[in-house]
Protein: Putative MATE family efflux protein
Amino acid sequence: MTTSLDAGPTRVLSLSAAALVVLVAEPLYLLVDTAVVGRLGALPLGALAVGAVVLAQVSSLGTFLAYGTTARAARAFGAGHRDRAVAEGVAATWLALFAGIAVVVLGQLIARPVADALGGGGVLADEAVDWMRIALFGAPGILVAMAGNGWMRGVQSTRAPVVVVLAGNGASAIACPVLVHGVGLGLEGSAIANVGAQTVVLLLFVGALVRETTRLGVTLRPVGADLRAQLGLGRDLLLRSLAFQACFLSATAVCARFGASSVAAHQVVLQLWTFMATVLDSLAIAAQQLVGAALGASATSSARTVTRRVTWYGIALGTVAGLVFAALAGVLPRVFTPDPTVLATIPAAWWFFVALQPIAGFVFALDGVLLGAADAAFLRRLTLGCALVGFLPAIWASLAFGWGLAGVWAGLSLFMLGRAVGVGLRARGDRWMVAGTGAAAGSATGQA
Structure:
């Protein structure tokens, strides 16, 4: 079996376009959710901010299911072993199901203390915990979707993930306003719509995996060696995700202590940040697919070509995005909330968000390159270092000295600038370019 190592602009952009549709589906739904709930007032929107950031951590914890699976599956695919690539999908899906069930059980137990910690107690926390306890039932679907996207990206399948994700999130985007306002369920209607979307996606991804394993003769039983290999690469990605979680949970907790208006404003800008992160990450997904396949086939020159191309694309896309959001500063926030106190607070974060777009384009593109090379240990060290030196100190200093929302977003800026320096220097060298199918199992991640 042969695979295409075409790394030309058309191939990069076609893979990015397919990834973009999948990546923006969930943030677009969350933006719809934010706009729908925002019509209920500042308190429900603030409660959604607290609950949604917790649910986002489920996706963050499951990052290794998508990125780790893509890296391992792409190397197998690049070497001409599609059956091994699909076997990686089987292992990742079992891990997703195990982890998803654990999250549901644990989440019900800790929802109250988590909501109190992030929301500062009171009515805001009460509403947040009700939303969280329903929405967490979607955790298995969230994680299975990440595993499904991971192995499908590895074999460079573009159509199936688009159909699956659009089916689930499209239905939920329709159901959300109906349940929240039409039926009158309020904030809880938002959580029910979310669970419905994730359940549909879970069933469709599992169905696609069953069909592919049947066609290739791959077992659907969990294989211990494959599970251990996935977890080996996932360790560094998981620690990296924990650093992100600590930062963004801290940011929400600090904003909540400045009042409902601050945390609601943070929610609006953060959801736009998340949306743009996924748009920019579409280039990173293409880089993962192509770099992984190239290194699996020992075509290091192709890996270098992809690196240069996606870096410039990322910078260009981020620059355009920054200009667009700067132009919409007086208009776009009003789409999400009519509350005058929230609208008055949003500018404190808005201009940080605008200025960071070109930097984010650069960082996310090179993240994709290094993830495709399974250079997870370096990315883990870099992320932890930037979190401990930049983001977290600025967040808590903001609370201590009363810097407000601007201090929180200044911390995010330091975090991104540190990562930009780190990935830029790493990509200039050759230590991440470990060729062969065995590298995905850990040799690249073990490098200094």
Notes: Residues 439-448 have pLDDT under 50 and may be disordered. DSSP finds 17 helices and no strands in the chain. The chain has one domain: 9-441.
